[in-house]
Amino acid sequence: MMALFDILASAGLWAAVLRIATPLIFGTLGAVLCERSGVLNLGIEGIMTFGAMVGWLTVYNGADLWTGMLVAALAGAVFGLMHALLSVTLGLSQHVTGLGITLFASSLSYFLFRLNVPLASTPPTIVPFKPVSIPGLSDLPFFGQAIFTQTMPTYLAILTAIVMSYVIFRMPLGLAIRMTGENPHAAEAQGINPVRIRYSAIMAGSALMGMGGAFLTLSAFNSFFPTMVQGRGWICIALVVFASWRPGRALLGALLFAFFDAFQLRLQPVLGDRVPYQIFLMIPYILSIAALALVARRAKVPQALMQAYRRGER
Amino acid sequence: MRLERRAHRPLFLVLVSPLIAVAAALAIAGILIAMAGAPVLEAYWRIVTGAFGTRLAATETFTRATPLILTGLAAAVAFRARVWNIGAEGQFYVGAITVAALGSSTLAALPGPLLIPTLFAAGALAGMLLMLLPLWLRLRFSVDEVVTSLLLNFVAVLFVSLLVEGVLKDPLAFGWPQSLPVSERALLPKLIMRSRLHIGLAVAVAAAIIVHLLQSRTVFGLRTRAAGLSPAGAAFAGVPLGLTLVKVACLSGGLAGLAGAIEVMGVKGYVTTDLSPGYGYSGIIVAMLANLHPVGVIAAAVFTAAMFVGADGMSRALGIPTYIADVIVSLSLLTMLVALFFTQYRIRR
């Protein structure tokens, strides 16, 4: 019992929560944006992998960290464009195209990585983002240190959630995106171009996914290795449902999820001799499945999600 | 310029679409090979000879194709009914570990002709059970099975890792996390002597033919297609939708579990957490390249296996990362989707 309390009372836990949550926040927000416009983007896992690779490679080749982030975002947008071509223009099954993009983007990442960085016993590293203390706030007792001493991309992720929430619920653009996701025919009758909205939403969403991946190699770690995304993309897809397609709740969902993850990491050494570590590693995946089962019935799914839109065709 | 639906789907186009798709994928991947500074045509020629050039290479390709046929079938039967089973990787692993657990236990004392079918059934059953969970969640809570079956892959591999480092750990493996070996009597006979090719290939081909007959000749097959094309229409026509989907999930998960069982009994003899180089995920590509046709799955699996086996030798000779094989097959999936689209639509001005 005391051990549990010690874990909860350690500032390290709360700092880790934000660190673990950041790629999930980016990824979930990206997926929310795509799905709000009516397109499921299962390319997320591959796009995050590619973002992690290309962001790292850019910095490794001498560019600065923010250029790495930008390149990862642009690469994400390119894969988003590909997904949009297949799922919007051609109206193909969003499940299959998304999986195809994931398989292609991850194998391309591994190929390009190996081409540029030959196999070595210790993978080369870069100097990652440094934590930035927010003056004033970080001096607050206990939580101040933990929460307000993060790297810049973490603050950016939280800011993105707030901005996206405002755009989706308070701006005409957000209304257009939501309408396209609910009923593209009605949206078109209102003078909205559903195809253009979907293309933009998928590309912008995929750019965020790329940045989520890049956070892994540019801030959380300092090197890239295959399979490092570890299903985070799929967890984001589950978090979207859990968040009921709302950016604010996506932020909360990602934080809650990261809390459990950070907690189990610290619980491992305490219970390590009695419980095999694999059980702890399973928790995030099982938690996501449980969360889905819990909320799926009540989920307010965008009504046109996964439905192709062809003008004049129903 | 606009897209117009074709009145008829020309059979000729459907049949050549995989060839066009593969050609397009090879052309795009060729750009990557050229960027890497290697001669493109020589690279492809080396892949072909690396996959089929010698007796050893060819048997290796077919050994590699065996699990791919089964995981490809697993995806094909599921996708046809719009059951998105992306969990073949996990089902493969639970099938494999079940066989390792039973095949190294006292059960291995069963007489030979009984032992091998029992282990096949056990592996398939394990895969089935793992697929039933996502399907149950879909039917009961309307949870999209794509995400749940995918997430279960990670759980399954961790579960296998737990067993091979725990109760099933081989004490004679010099500390490596690998399972106890299955009894020698559970190992599959070779199909060709002095090679790794085993009778699992025959089992996989038989499975493809059985699935084809099931789909084309039985009520179950008709119901599967109906459930996939239009669930509402199928229900209206009196198709027991839930039951049909359960059967499809069992068949799909069972085939993936069987793939794992056969890989253990035919090739390795024991389980490690790197038993599968992504057979479950490649199965999706195989199924799509075959346009979900069970017999086409065989050809698509051989193509995919040839890429992986051939790329190994090519990579060593020309210094191109072996991941080029993954790039080629995943690109083929995307180009195949486009090719199939144009069997249904045409471009009009």
UniProtKB/TrEMBL annotation, chain A:
| Domain of life of the source | Bacteria
Q: Where does the signal sequence lie? A: none
Where is the major localization of this protein? membrane
Matching InterPro entries, A to Z? Answer: ABC_transp_permease (IPR001851)
Q: How does it sit in the membrane?
A: Multi-pass membrane protein
Q: Name one GO cellular component term.
A: plasma membrane
TM segments? 40-59, 66-86, 92-113, 155-177, 197-221, 233-259, 279-296
Q: State its location(s).
A: Cell membrane
Q: Which UniProt keywords apply?
A: Cell membrane, Membrane, Transmembrane, Transmembrane helix
Which Pfam families does this one have? Answer: BPD_transp_2 (PF02653)
Annotated GO MF terms:
transmembrane transporter activity
Q: What is this protein called?
A: Nucleoside ABC transporter membrane protein
Organism listed in the record: Phyllobacterium bourgognense
- Lineage of the species this protein comes from: Bacteria, Pseudomonadati, Pseudomonadota, Alphaproteobacteria, Hyphomicrobiales
From TrEMBL, chain B:
Q: Does the keyword Signal apply?
A: no
Primary residence: membrane
Residue ranges crossing the lipid bilayer per the database entry: 12-41, 61-79, 91-110, 116-137, 149-168, 197-214, 226-245, 251-271, 283-311, 323-343
Source domain of life is Bacteria
Q: Which PANTHER family match?
A: ABC TRANSPORTER, PERMEASE PROTEIN, GUANOSINE ABC TRANSPORTER PERMEASE PROTEIN NUPP
Q: How does it sit in the membrane?
A: Multi-pass membrane protein
GO function terms (MF aspect): transmembrane transporter activity
Q: Which organism is it from?
A: Phyllobacterium bourgognense
Q: What is this protein called?
A: Nucleoside ABC transporter membrane protein
UniProt-annotated location(s) = Cell membrane
Q: Name one Pfam family in it.
A: BPD_transp_2
What is one GO cellular-component annotation here? Answer: plasma membrane
Alphabetically list the UniProt keywords.
Cell membrane, Membrane, Transmembrane, Transmembrane helix
